[in-house]
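User:
Can I borrow your eye for a moment on a structure tokenisation matter? Would you put together a sequence-and-structure record for a protein of your own picking? Please set it down just below, with no commentary around it:
AI:
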Amino acid sequence: LVVLLACEAASFASIWALQRVVLPDVGWFDGATTQLVGNAFNRVTPGGGATGTALQARLLADAGYDLTRLAAALTAESAMISIAVLVLPVFSLPAILAGLNVPGSLADAAWIGIVVFALVAAAGAAVLRSPGPIAAFGDGTAWVVNRFRHRRPPIRDLGARLVEQRAVLRRSVGSHWALAGGTAVGRWAFEYLGLIVTLYAIGAHVEPTLVLLAFTFAELLGMLPFTPGGLGFVEAGLPATLALAGVAASDAVLATLIFRLVSFWLPLPVGLAALFIYRRRHPRTDLAPGSDAGGEEQARHTHDRDP
């Protein structure tokens, strides 16, 4: 149990290290505590991670960080972590090519993951080289949102601002690409090690490569935005894929329960405690720094003081 907790802590530390790459001006305390809060919030709300990312950005904005930069950087971080889970089947290739007998369903999942990773990586590289898609996405998003912002100032030049933040991210990540990629993969690798530790602790006889494929498939199920944190999908999918990997049914169920207790349920009270600690340092504000309404309020006070 101690080793499993250490693996889970290392998985979270990998996320915090990645945040330091995409947001070098955000300190360890602010980045770690807000990520714990956002992670916990994501586990109780559907949305595939978007809700937790939005809450983390809002919390950091309360501490004085620029909201546009936060949104761009945290979205990029979330994308890198999501893509990184598709990298995991690549590590199974040597064993598969060496003749490891892989059940059909797991083999299909491995090849699909590899193909999807290649396609997503190619699309990401194209976006990084050309600002057009990002600008079009930003302007399109602003147009849709402005249709429903009747009582608030409209969003302007979002596409241009996202392109500007893309340039900032390219500079910050470009010089630390190995660290960014390693920490994104490390987020999943340490969690996979936690599952392996759990299986060995209960006496299950496993093939690590097959468990890796089963873990990858289950984590992809957990990204489905239909339930909070993939609740239900992972609990149903992981025992089934572990059984395909040769784990006894009773061992697969027990390992899933222990693994999810540490990886899913334990971070909930930790996130609540992190919110309390963070709010002690950064009390809540009604408006994000730099917002339009905040600027209007400041201008009004300035006008009132003008003789």
DSSP finds 14 helices and no strands in the chain. The mean pLDDT is 79. The radius of gyration is 22 Å.
